[in-house]
Amino acid sequence: MAARAAKSKQKGAGGSFVELVTIVVVALGLALGIQAFLVKPFRIPSESMVPTLSVNQRVLVNRLGHRFGDPDRGDIVVFKPPKGADENLCGVRHSSDSSCPKPTREKSKTNFIKRVVAIGGDRIKVIDGNVYLNGKRQREPFIRPDAQCEICNLPKEITIPKGHYFMMGDNRGESADSREWGPIPKEWMIGKAFMTYWPPGKIGGL
Question: The whole model's pTM is what?
Answer without folding.
Answer: 0.82
